[in-house]
């Protein structure tokens, strides 16, 4: 990782960084305020709130099927600006409808789904844009900074959303949220570096599965990428189990209060920030492939703190805190290293489709894991399902394997 001044003096990256900070905080405010608004203003039921949560995630899977070709065929920065403006406009419809007395759950569902779709497009476009903006030598440094900001947003955004709801109410809180997206769009618009002209994509293959096939072919042609994609699938499938049942374990089984649960989740943001800061020193100490294996193994082993808390309820709070802080730190560091490897080896012409392939894999496996968790709890004790999910996640260590991960001298060809 290069020294800090190299990017501190990169004005366009600083604009992107500040824009991403606003966008990341805005995304967390949306995620927090919309369910609160549904509950407090529209008296939504538990099933309606659950459906709202699913609608905020599922569009990423759908958009990922189409976004790769869109990102590869067009300039990335205008796509990011468009996604920000779309999110701001969508969010602003809620306070307007509330002021007119016309707000209802169907609109909340639509806004949550559309904002989730725009966020997925922004994320895929950003992943493809960063390498061209900062250059290969500074990718790890840039990703670490962006991930650190995202980690801070994970802690600040939900808290800020809750405070805004309490002070000005849900509809006006979303008006403030819309301003964060406008801030992001304005800063992205000030980036001076011109983008390279996109390489035209074949018009013959227009259906989304062909684009996913392209992304998969790129990964198959480079074994380290294929192993990273397989790791993504295994970890998010297993992570979907914890995603679905963590609140049930904490509040229902262990009897923690909502306030304590909120603090635990916020501690995960602190851990992610530590993981982002860990990457540079780690790469100065060990090889890249060693760093990948160490961070993945440590993060997955620390997921065992959740089922261990069920075995040792007297130590539940410190165990869960350890998992949130240390576990999230190592998995965040792994994510930065894995993303940086991808961005260095993948050709710009297919960067969007590879990013979309990883996004579809991640979102699809996360939803599948959550659905599987719900199904298994009908037949098995909760503790057994939690143990099964965390132990299954450990298999990703073997999936990553012992082959070279930093041998990037022969990048895959563009299909």
What does this structure look like?
The protein has 415 residues and is an all-alpha fold. The chain has 2 domains: 1-192, Up-down Bundle (Growth Hormone, Chain: A); 206-415, Growth Hormone, Chain: A. It is built from 15 helices and no strands. Helix 2 packs antiparallel against helix 5, helix 2 (11-40) runs antiparallel to helix 7 and helix 5 crosses helix 14 (351-376). It is globular. The protein starts with a helix and ends in a 15-residue tail after the last helix.
The main sheet comes to: none
Strand residue content: under 5%
Topology order in helix (H) and strand (E) letters = HHHHHHHHHHHHHHH
Distance between the termini: 31 Å
Low-confidence stretches: 1-5, 407-414
Mean of pLDDT: 83
Output the number of helix runs.
15
List keywords for this structure.
disordered N terminus, Growth Hormone, Chain: A, 2 domains, 81% helix, globular, 15 helices
């Amino acid at each position: 990782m290069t020294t800090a001044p190299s990017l501190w003096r990169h004005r366009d990256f600083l604009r992107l960084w500040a824009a991403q900070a606003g966008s990341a905080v805005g995304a967390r405010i949306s995620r927090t305020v919309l369910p609160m608004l549904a509950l407090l203003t529209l008296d939504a039921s538990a099933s309606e709130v659950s459906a709202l949560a699913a609608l905020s995630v599922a569009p990423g899977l759908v958009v990922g099927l189409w976004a790769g070709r869109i990102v590869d065929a067009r300039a990335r920065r205008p796509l990011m600006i468009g996604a920000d403006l779309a999110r701001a406009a969508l969010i602003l419809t809620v306070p307007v409808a509330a002021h007119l007395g016309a707000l209802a759950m169907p609109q909340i569902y639509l806004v949550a789904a559309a904002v989730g779709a725009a966020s997925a497009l922004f994320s895929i476009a950003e992943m493809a844009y960063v390498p061209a903006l900062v250059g290969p030598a500074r990718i790890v440094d840039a990703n670490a900074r962006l991930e650190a900001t995202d980690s801070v947003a994970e802690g600040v955004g939900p808290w800020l959303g809750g405070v805004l709801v309490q002070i000005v109410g849900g509809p006006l809180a979303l008006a403030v949220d819309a301003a964060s997206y406008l801030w992001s769009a304005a800063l992205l618009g000030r980036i001076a570096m011109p983008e390279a002209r996109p390489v035209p994509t074949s018009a013959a293959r227009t259906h989304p599965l062909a684009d996913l096939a392209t992304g998969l072919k790129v990964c198959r042609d480079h074994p380290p990428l294929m192993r990273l994609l397989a790791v993504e699938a295994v970890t998010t499938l297993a992570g979907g189990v914890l995603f679905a049942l963590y609140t049930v374990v904490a509040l229902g089984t262990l009897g923690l209060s909502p306030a304590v649960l909120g603090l635990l989740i916020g501690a995960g943001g602190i851990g992610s920030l530590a993981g982002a800061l860990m990457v540079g020193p780690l790469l100065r100490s060990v090889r890249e492939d060693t760093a990948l294996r160490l961070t993945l193994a440590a993060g997955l082993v620390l997921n065992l703190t959740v089922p261990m808390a069920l075995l040792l309820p007297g130590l539940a709070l410190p165990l869960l805190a350890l998992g949130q802080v240390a576990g999230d730190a190592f998995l965040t560091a792994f994510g930065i290293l894995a993303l940086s490897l991808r961005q260095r080896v993948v050709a710009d012409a297919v960067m969007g489709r590879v990013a979309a392939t990883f996004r579809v894999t991640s979102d699809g496996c996360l939803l599948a894991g959550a659905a599987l968790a719900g199904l298994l709890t009908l037949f098995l004790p909760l503790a057994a399902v939690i143990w099964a999910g965390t132990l299954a996640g450990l298999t990703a260590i073997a999936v990553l394997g012992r082959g070279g991960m930093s041998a990037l001298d022969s990048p895959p060809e563009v299909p």
